[in-house]
Amino acid sequence: MALFGKKKKTEVLSESALPVHIGIIMDGNGRWAKKRGLPRKAGHSAGAKTFRKITRYCSDIGIKYLTVYAFSTENWKRPEDEVSSLMKLFKSYLEEALADFKDDSIVVKFIGDKAPFDEALRNLMIENEESSKDRDGMVLNIAMNYGSRDEIVRAVKNICSDVQNGSVLPENIDEQLISDYLYTSGQPDPDLIIRPSGEHRISNFLLWQSAYTEFVIMNKLWPDFETSDLDEALEIYSQRNRRYGGV
Ligand code: IPE
Ligand code: IPE
Ligand code: MG
């Protein structure tokens, strides 16, 4: 476990200074592989190991919600061999690594539209959700075929159909109701979003939910990301002054 000075980071930061919900845009796998003269899929495998390590660390230090961006609605436009190697990797991860999270009592959820994935992968996603839903540990949202605009379009359609069938009255549509129609329904908004690999953009991740989220951009590529980098992001976060439009 990473240390901060002589003490664990979480012993230094008071509990109130820790984010409840962290989002991570797991970016930079391709560049990591390129730097080493390896195929991009080697970067994705290395990134999957980092995912495992950082997820466990977040659970260990008491983070309540972690949302990781694994595959966007736009990532289908990548070359076919990259997409198919990612699908293979997702399958092996859902079979092995996620079973490991059982020891940490982690609740696994997928956010995004499962429909375009093949049946085997879809079933693995559903099995992981079903088998972990009664655990009491950290909630891990894995964003797969997730795009925030797509999420909002779906929410609008579902609200419209509920208005049509009379279960929602237009005058009752408010911010809370819209949040309730998103994949993250019932969860707190992210306090902190970390983007490794130095890109300063949101890339269609949690647009509605991140209205008042603190962003920390880090230069490390995701496969190189260490628990000490997470500590650094937490330290930066703890020094932010969140005003939510107030003074
Ligand atoms: C993130 O790494 C993984 C996915 C988007 C699936 P990238 O593959 O985007 O890596 P870079 O940005 O090309 O380095
Ligand atoms: C965002 O990264 C999506 C994931 C990390 C899964 P991208 O690499 O797809 O985003 P852009 O293309 O740099 O905006
Ligand atoms: Mg990228």
TL;DR?
The chain has 247 residues and is of the alpha/beta class. It is 41% helix and 14% strand.
Mean pLDDT: 94
H/E element string?
HEHHEHHEHEHHEEH
User: Which CATH top level class fits?
Assistant: Alpha Beta
Question: How many beta strands in the DSSP annotation?
Answer: 6
Number of individual domains = 1
Largest sheet: 6 strands, parallel
Residue share in helix = 40-55%
Description:
The chain is globular, with a radius of gyration of 18 Å. Strands 3-4-2-1-5-6 form a six-stranded parallel sheet, sandwiched between helices. The chain has a single domain, classed as Decaprenyl diphosphate synthase-like (Undecaprenyl pyrophosphate synthetase, 3-Layer(aba) Sandwich), CATH 3.40.1180. The N and C termini lie far apart (37 Å). It is built from nine helices and six strands; from the N terminus they run αβααβααβαβααββα. The N terminus is likely disordered. It is of the alpha/beta class. It binds 3-methylbut-3-enyl trihydrogen diphosphate (IPE) (2 copies) and magnesium ion. One 3-methylbut-3-enyl trihydrogen diphosphate binds next to strand 2.
